[in-house]
Specification:
Number of strands: 7
CATH topology: Rossmann fold
Low-confidence stretches: none
Number of domains: 1
CATH class: Alpha Beta
Strand content: 15-25%
Amino acid sequence: MTAAVTLILGGAASGKSAFAEKLCISSGKPRAYWATSQVFDDEMRAKVHKHLVQRGPDWMTHEEPFDAVSVLNTLSEGQICLMDCATMWLTNHLLAEHDLEAETEGLLTAIDACAADIVIVTNETGLGIVPENALARRFREAQGRLNIALAARAERVVQVTAGLPLVLKGTLS
């Protein structure tokens, strides 16, 4: 069974994660949360703790910064999974100097094979100026390609700006 995919994109601190969480909750399905961040300092540790408390105990949390297959293969039909976020997942692979094309293909294949519905949060990074350094330009290009591939697979694509959703593809109902 192929997952129903929803892509939520927007800028940093735009309200996309809160919107995605509400979508998952309103589905009425058992919820999984795929946390892609890595915790390297106290600030990030506090942020992760705050998010865990905000979500509450009704989420099964999977902390996995790299391996899409290990998370998505554990899900079953009737569940919904929030991946938060594809941008951090991509950043992890970029900084680890992994093959971004191969990793992206692995993620897309895992999404295609997943039985659960998936809500993916990602950042829109192409609205600003061209970055001054090669690493930032490489990231922006890779993020753009990933977002395009995710949007192509998604039944629903929503851009969130200032906490307000704008449906780009599909419907919210």
